[in-house]
Amino acid sequence: MDLLLVQIYKIISLALTAYSFALVIYILMSWVPASRDTAFGRILEKIAEPYLGFFRRFIPPLGMIDISPIVGLLALRLIERGLRSIFIWLLTVL
Question: Which of 42, 48, 69, 88 lies 20 to 30 Å from 22 when distance is taken between CA atoms?
Answer without folding.
Answer: 88
